[in-house]
Amino acid sequence: xxxxxxxxxxxxxxxxxxxxxxxxxxxxxxxxxxxxxxxxxxxxxxxxxxxxxxxxxxxxxxxxxxxxxxxxxxxxxxxxxxxxxxxxxxxxxxxxxxxxxxxxxxxxxxxxxxxxxxxxxxxxxxxxxxxxxxxxxxxxxxxxxxxxxxxxxxxxxxxxxxxxxxxxxxxxxxxxxxxxxxxxxxxxxxxxxxxxxxxxxxxxxxxxxxxxxxxxxxxxxxxxxxxxxxxxxxxxxxxxxxxxxxxxxxxxxxxxxxxxxxxxxxxxxxxxxxxxxxxxxxxxxxxxxxxxxxxxxxxxxxxxxxxx
Length: 308
Hints:
Aminoglycoside 3'-phosphotransferase, Chain: A, domain 2; about 50% helix; 12 helices; 11 strands; 2 domains
């Protein structure tokens, strides 16, 4: 347990000298009327700074309670690693961590060395790794493809393409896939180089237990294509295990799942959200079609993924 851990929220409140809601201001500037959480920059009488994350009523209605239930356990998986914010208090509605000062990652300022360090850092951030057979994932994807055809999102031709690529070996897959605790949302803004020059991951709710290869296949498309290869090589170097990645397979898997989830979200959403979901679906379907076209043209899919 962190030595600065508070026993109760009242104990924390008693030492606060200043509190500033930084997330509400940002949400207001972005045009959000109701945010799921409030994020406070808190200063104590001793001059120490903390981040207080508090669940709002809007967040409760949108199911964010689950993140407050799981996030403390994920943060504790990194205890003493100095790779994520130190957890100092948590209850069902609040999470308090250290406030990390430093320089936020920005795409325009990144060098090849930054991307190499970033790739290795993300790989070394894996925790509680387990391997499971791939069969159920393939069955799930086949079912999701059939659903997307039934809902009119994918054509029969595209569905046949996907199945043919598996049958004729254009897209190969491993016998097992990896699950573990990992940095799920790897947007540039979620990383900081702290005042000591160390990389830190700051998105408390971005840490998740998930399918590592599928998350990674999504991550690499956040990287400008001319840095992608260096990022991937560094990531593989940092992995705590040796495994062939089959990136094209996991890229296809995550695209199909992403479309499937967005369509279900659209079906369950209120009317004013449907246009937003439709744009997101169209964009992801477009990316899937580009990938399938590259496969049809006989391109080396790993090379295509590094350069598209």
